[in-house]
Amino acid sequence: MTKLEQLPPGLPAPEDDGACRHLPGMHMPSVCLPATSGDIVDLSALAAPRTVLYAYPMTGQPGTTLPTDWDAIPGARGCTPQACTFRDHCRELAELGAGVFGLSTQDTAYQREMAARLHLPFPVLSDSALALTTALRLPTFVVDGMRLIRRLTLIVRAGVIEKVFYPVFPPDQSAAQVIDWLKQHSLDEDARRGSNQGNTQNEKSLYHQSSIDFRCYLEMALFEPRPGRAEVSVCPSGNQGVRLAVRGSEISGHGCLWWKAASPLSGVGSRYQTFSRRWDCRCVCQVC
User: Fold this and answer.
1) Which of 109, 267, 274, 285 is 20–30 Å from 6 (CA)?
2) Which residues pair with 221 in a beta bridge?
3) What are the structural domain ranges in the chain?
4) What is the pLDDT of residue 55?
5) What b/e sequence results for 107-128 when a residue is b if at least 16 CB atoms lie within 10 Å of its CB, and e otherwise?
6) 77 neighbors 11 (Cβ within 8 angstroms)
């Protein structure tokens, strides 16, 4: 084990300053970032059931000096140990349905040296232009003229930030913390919770990918089945509409539909649960 892979004793622990409170429930912006794999990745349009995105300030390089007073900055030291722990747990994360990406503001060439040296089995994304950092308003700090992301981890599901770990300390326990959370919030368990909300025989779902790669998973739990057909046109601003044809429920009226990607959209008559994003909708009932 090299010096960079070890955490020195007595590191100051970062405090939660509330800089990430706005993130849960946010939709990932359509920002394309270069990856160490050579791909261009849009985090708003990923196919994995869940994605773990761990953001870190900066990994050191052998034979080079760390930034000024690096060990004294709360949460700064430990990027290499954190990368190693995600490397070592990458298979377990995949078994839990989660893909992994690293994220920092260093350029891709700098990141590739680190990824090759540490044998990382997952891509690391470069936000050197601060496009994603700015779009999500991620917390940053400046040292030696470099603007760096404060250490945090996002769990993204269907394009929506489901969970935020901030601050992350100690960094070499980051992957274990994520795994513990994923086990407590498994995809199978979420599906079982959704099925318990209503008659499972009457549940319908639709997976739709629009022209701008916005992916949504809608799940409607139907109650008190009645003869008839309900057709719901969901028309997000600037996007193609999604049309749901659902049997066994009556929906009528005009108004707004609120929902959150990958969360159950439960309807009882014309009453809907409300979530984080507003969509204009038009409901048209037809009798069979």
Assistant:
1) 109
2) 266
3) 3-185, 191-286
4) 98
5) ebebbbebbeebebebbbbbbb
6) yes
Say which CATH architecture domain 3-185 belongs to. 3-Layer(aba) Sandwich (3.40)
C-alpha gyration radius of the chain:
22
Instruction: Report the candidate in 229, 219, 228 with the shortest Cα–Cα distance to residue 261.
Output: 219
- At 113-146, the pLDDT tens digits run 999 999 999 999 999 999 999 999 999 999 999 9
- The 3-state DSSP class for residue 110 equals helix
* pLDDT given for residue 188 in this prediction: 72
- Side chain identity at residue 9, one-letter code: P
- Percent of the chain at pLDDT > 70 equals 65
> For residue 144, what are the CA distances in angstroms to 12, 46, 66, 148, 204?
20, 35, 10, 10, 55
All residues at 6 or more sequence positions from 54 whose CB lies less than 8 Å from its CB, including other chains: 82, 86, 100, 101, 102, 103, 151, 152, 153, 154, 168, 174, 178
**Alpha-carbon distance 136 to 144, whole Å?**
24
The whole-angstrom separation of Cα 50 and Cα 225 is 33
Please tell me what DSSP assigns to residue 81: H
Tokens of 243: 């049309």
Q: Across the beta sheet with 229-234, what order do the strands follow?
A: 242-247, 229-234, 277-286, 254-259
* Phi, psi of 174, rounded to the nearest 5 degrees: -60, -50
pTM for the model stands at 0.67
Q: Which amino acid is at 4?
A: L
